[in-house]
Amino acid sequence: MVTVHPLKTGKDDDRSGLPEFALWADAQLDPVLRKRVKWATIKNPQRAIEKAIRTYKSMPCHLLDICRQSIYFESVSDIIQCLQVINNDKEVVIERIKNRLDPDYDSCISAGYTNACPKH
């Protein structure tokens, strides 16, 4: 699933501010829907500098999340399948995975948020 920009209907609805999702397979077949896909943007340069200085002792080579795209899945098996496809891509190297789906992960650290986050 991909996040898409909301349709501008001119009406107030209860879903304002909530993300809207579409299946990528549907977006590929529908040119209007494909134009609504929210593609990744680069990290704000000021934030990248701040993170390099504060977190990585002024070594920007450690910044891994300059460009970030989210992919949403309906099941854990879909996540596994996607990670396998990424891992099998000869042009991509997965450096590490932040696995917040692990049963041993303390979700209190992230205010209950869970995900799997590959870094490449």
| Beta content | 15-25%
| SS elements, strand count | 6
Distance between the termini: 20 Å
Calculate Rg over CA atoms.
Answer: 17 Å
Report mean pLDDT, rounded to a whole number: 79
Give me the side-by-side strand order of the main sheet: 1-2
Number of domains: 3
Coarse morphology: globular
Q: What can be said about the biggest beta sheet? A: 2 strands, antiparallel
**Class inferred from helices and paired strands:** alpha+beta
Alpha plus pi helix count: 4
Helix content: 25-40%
H/E element sequence: EEHHEHEHEE
Q: Report the uncertain regions.
A: none
Description:
With 120 residues, this protein is α+β, with helices and mostly antiparallel strands. It has 3 domains: 39 residues, no CATH class; 31 residues, no CATH class; 47 residues, no CATH class. The protein contains 4 helices and 6 strands. The two termini are 20 Å apart.
Brief summary:
This protein is α+β, with helices and mostly antiparallel strands and about 120 residues long.
